[in-house]
Automatic annotation (TrEMBL):
Record-annotated active site: 124
The name this protein goes by in its record: Methylated-DNA--protein-cysteine methyltransferase
Subcellular compartments: Cytoplasm
Domain Methylguanine DNA methyltransferase ribonuclease-like: 1-69
Species for this entry: Jiangella alkaliphila
Length: 155
């Protein structure tokens, strides 16, 4: 397993991968990196670093990277739904639950959203409360607001 860091406008990000696909993007250093078998190496992350840099400068609106997040089948469904939210738009937890055919699963969607291991690229920041208010974000509401502001900035 490989890892590297990326300096973003939101602070240092840690990227993890298996050499073929990205498995994580974190805004705090994952404890797993202290375990045997992890190797710090920039090379497997060249495309991810380039695409993140372009995203943060407003030159890129989506990502074209192989992803391999680890999660339950339901979490995988939620994360796929997150990737379908267009740049600059938001959806509510309820809307995602309805999209998945589980209209009463808003809280489960919220829990899966909170366990998204590939933040920014799998845009969990685009999910808001039903009233449009910003709600929980694992990396803090200030970062969530900054990401949404980036995506809605006038070019």
């Amino acid at each position: 397993m490989y890892w590297t860091t990326f300096d973003s406008p939101l602070g240092t990000m840690w990227l993890t991968g298996d050499g073929t696909a990205l498995t994580g993007l974190y805004m705090e250093r994952p404890a797993a990196l202290d375990q045997p078998g992890w190797v710090e190496d920039d090379a497997p992350f060249a495309a991810a670093r380039d695409q993140l840099a372009a995203y943060f400068t407003g030159e890129r609106q989506d990502f074209d990277l192989p992803l391999s997040p680890v999660g339950t089948p339901f979490q995988q469904q939620v994360w796929a739904a997150l990737r379908a939210i267009p740049y600059g738009e938001t959806r509510s937890y309820r809307e995602i639950a309805e999209q998945l055919g589980r209209p009463t699963a808003s809280r489960a969607v919220g829990a899966a959203n909170g366990r998204n291991p590939i933040s920014v690229i799998v845009p969990c920041h685009r999910v808001v409360g039903s009233s449009g208010v910003l709600t929980g974000y694992a990396w803090g509401l200030e970062r969530k607001r900054a990401l949404l502001d980036l995506e809605t900035a006038e070019v």
